[in-house]
Amino acid sequence: MRAKISYIVTAAVLVFYFALVGSRGVMLIQSGTLITVTFGVSVLILPVIGLWFLWKNTQFVRRANALAAELDAEGGLPVDELRRLPSGRVDRQSADLVFARRKAETEAAPDDWRSWFRLAVAYHDARDTPRARKAMQRAIALHDGRRIEPA
């Protein structure tokens, strides 16, 4: 719940910022000179890109959470079996063992969204965010019936 609140607050701050920047862009365009109109259009592009990114990220999180809820209802969510250091961080050897199992599971069933979901969690636990995101994107695509070719 705490992560959800943080996400909502961050998104709200970003939307406010995009509105502020967008209003400055409109003010520049209303000035009417060639340079201010050019700058105004340039300034308006940034909030559009930001809003698009925020929308895509929100959709990704929403769909990943829906998969987690479905997997939880099936009783298939991965159990946290990682050993932790006294600092609370995950023990690297423990993460490597779990990751090896998840990778083997995914290689054995490459068209199963559940195995890709669990692999994404293993990547996340290993602090490999780009691969975790790609694995989750594949899980979402497979769940939705889309086939993604391996990279």
Can you characterise this structure?
By secondary structure, this protein is an all-alpha fold. The chain is built from five helices and no strands. Helix 1 (2-31) runs antiparallel to helix 2 (34-74) and helix 3 runs antiparallel to helix 4. The model has no long low-confidence stretch (mean pLDDT 89).
Short description:
The chain is mostly helical and 151 residues long.
Helix and strand sequence: HHHHH
How many strands in all? 0
Radius of gyration: 21 Å
C-alpha end-to-end distance = 34 Å
Residue stretches low in confidence (pLDDT < 50, at least 5 long) are none
Notable characteristics:
single chain, mainly alpha
Q: How are the SSEs placed, and which strands pair?
A:
Layout: H1 2-31, H2 34-74, H3 92-108, H4 113-125, H5 129-143
Helix pairs in contact: 1-2, 2-5, 3-4, 4-5
